[in-house]
Amino acid sequence: MERDYGFEIDALKKELQDIKDLLTKGHTADSSTACKKPHKRVGHIEKMEHMHPDPAVMSILDRLENTCGSNGDNGRITYLGVFASGNRQSTWIRNEVNTNDLLALIENKMAEKVLACIGNNDRLNILLAILKKPITVAQLVEECGYNSTGQVYHHLKPLIAADLVKEDSDNEGKGYYIVQPHRVQGIIMLLAGISDMVDPQYSQGNWNDSNTPEN
After folding, report:
1. First and final CA of the chain: distance in angstroms?
2. Is the residue at 181 inside a domain?
3. How many structural domains are present in the chain?
4. Which one, of 183, 88, 191, lies nearest residue 135 by Cα?
5. CATH number at residue 180
6. Residues 133, 85: contact at Cβ < 8 Å?
7. Span 22-71, pLDDT tens digits
C-alpha cells in the first residue's frame, strides 16, 4: 500500500499545533495565577517587585521595605546624587532617612519658612542663575532681565539671609555670588520632588484602606 505522505505531514502539523496550543494555554494560566498571587509583606509594608531593571537599585528598595516594615515606620528613603556646574561639584548620599523626621518639618513650620523664602519667581530665577555659575549682580541684571541692580539686591538679600547664597570673595572674587555648597543638594532634591509631583510614573502602591492588613 502506497503511503500518503501529504496526509501524514498534515497530521503531524496538526499534532504540533495542538501541542503548541496546550503550551500556550499552560503559560497563560501560569501567568494569570502569578498575577493573582498576593505581594509579600513585611509588617504593614507591601513589597513592590520589579520596579527597576537594576538589581542594585532593587536591593536598596528591598532593604528600605524590610527596615520600614520591621520597625513600623511610616516610611524610609535613601537618595544620592551629583551635580556639577560652574567648575563646582556637589555629591551627596543619605541612607534610610525616617520619613517621620521629614513630616516633622511641616509641623515645626520649617518647611513653610524655606518655601516662603524661595517661593517667588524672581528669587527662583536668581537662584537658578547663581546655581549655574558664579555671577555678579550686574550679570544678574542682564541675564535675568532686570532694570537695575536695586531690583536684584531686593530679591538677593532674602536668599543670603536664608544662607542659600553667599558672596564668594575667597575664590571668584568680591562681588561674585554662589549657592552655598551645603545647600546645593537640597535645592536639587526639592526640584526632584516637584518633578515627581508633576509626573508620578515612578511610584507604585495602593493608597486605599483596603491596603491595610487585617489585625
Report:
1. 76
2. yes
3. 1
4. 88
5. 1.10.10.10
6. yes
7. 656 555 545 444 445 566 889 999 999 889 999 999 999 999 999 999 99
